[in-house]
Amino acid sequence: MGNNLSFRGWIVASLIRPNKLLYRIFKPSAKGVRRYVHPQSWLGGKVFSPFGVKISKTNYDAIPGVSFIPKFVKNEKAVIIFLHGGGYCFGSSLTTHRLGVSLMAKITGIACYSVDYRLAPEHPYPAALDDAMLAYQDIVSKNPESRIILAGDSAGGGLSLALMMKLRDEGGRMPDDAVLFSPWIDLTCQGESFETKSKADPMFTPSMPRDCSHYYAPEGVDMSHPYVSPAYGDFSGLPRCLILCGGQEILLSDSEDLANKAADAGIDVELSLWPTMFHDWWLFGRFIPETKQCLTKVSQWLGD
Question: From the candidates 102, 249, 253, 255, which is the catalytic residue?
Answer without folding.
Answer: 249
